[in-house]
Amino acid sequence: MSAHSYGQREFEIAGRQVGPGHPAYVIAEAGSNHNRDLDTAKRLIEVAAESGADAVKFQTYTAEGLYSRHTPTMSYLEDSALLKDKESVWELIKRVEIPWEWHRDLADHAKKHDLDFLSTPFQEEAVDLLQSLDVPAYKIASYEVNHLPLIEKCAATGRPLLISTGMASLGDIERALDTANAAGAHQIAILHCAINYPPRFADLNLKAITTLASAFGVPIGWSDHTMGHTADVVAVSLGASVVEKHFTLSRDQDGPDHAFALEPSELSAMVSAIREAEAALGVSVKRVTEAESEMYALGRRSLVAAREIAGGAELQRADIAVKRPGTGIPVPELKLILGRRAKHLIEADQVLTWADLG
Question: Which of these, 93, 152, 153, 319, could form a disulfide with 63 (CB 3.0-4.6 Å)?
């Protein structure tokens, strides 16, 4: 494994800083959940914007460019009854592919809603289409990590790359990064990913996020297929700089990606949870925060007169109580005041200060 960094520690996507120390770049993944209906696709963009996501992403492919007609059927498609009338994988993909002529309209709709428009290219011709739309970054899907010609073409555009790594070994990732670097890409984020729809939590291996950051020296993200947002909050807590999550208008719809996608309210809850987690992480310094300052003074303890003390009297341990507030002589100074004399009459329950003692 090469020890050098494969890219910059941080970079920009459409003016947004991506990398350690910056808020996670959240991608709402529409995938094929448009159901080949343009109005549905536009509504997905609106939902992504309403959720607070930074980008909305579709997938650009054709059945002809993606699968051989002789591809065996994946078990999860059969188990989930997602294939219609004994259709093949190729026929399913043909049924859900996004019409390429929609892309301009969708990109404009995303811009109107202040969202970055992204789409994952699955074949080299798709890069030409997306480049004509001036997309700000390219996503390489986990399945394409060995599609080196596609990586080369995306890298040659000079745009940032987001490379998902589900099913990939460190060697697979290194080869993809070498390919991207050789083609001119040095703004790269690696997205840890667990392939299954949905995966079990036991299979997520989120600690690999820190391993990838150490191994490759580029921003690390998390491409998620789980339900809920627990994994996304954990990923951000481990340093994920990008989070990608599938969403849908309704899981009751028919199609291969609806069942494991978040519904609109859930997507909003995920983005909120990520932002709350980022705020909660704060900094590594242990200190009294500004928010704690009042209770630090009033809720901690200090030294208080346990009874009335006559002026000139020598303070005994029985004269001293430890009570709130914490505005008097600090408790650790207790032994230092024993044997000192009161300068004047000290009332019972009076908070002691050094000015009270001789």
Answer: 93
Question: Would you call the peptide bond into 264 cis, given omega within 30 degrees of 0 as the criterion?
Answer: no
Looking at the domain assignment, is residue 2 inside a domain? no
Quick one: which of 206, 181, 220 has its CA closest to 19?
A: 220
The boundaries of the domain holding residue 306 are 290-356
306 and 272 in a common domain: no
Question: 248, 281, 314 — which closes off a domain?
Answer: 281
**What is the C-alpha separation between 349 and 138, in angstroms, rounded?**
69
pLDDT tens-digit readout, 155-202: 999 999 999 999 999 999 999 999 999 999 999 999 999 999 899 999
CA torsion 152-157-158-159 (nearest 10°) is -100
- Nearest-angstrom CA–CA distance, 157 and 184: 8
- Whether 75 is covered by a domain: the verdict is no
DSSP secondary structure string for all residues of 308-347 = -B-TTPBP-GGGEEEES-SSSSBGGGHHHHTT-BBSS-B-
Please enumerate in sequence order all residues whose Cβ is within 8 A of that of 347, keeping only pairs 6 or more positions apart, or say none.
Answer: 305, 308
Q: Are residues 167 and 198 in the same domain?
A: yes
Residue type, 13: I
| Distance between CA atoms of residues 289 and 272, nearest Å | 23
Q: Tell me the whole-structure pTM to 2 decimals.
A: 0.88
Task: Please check whether residue 6 lies inside any domain of the structure.
Answer: no
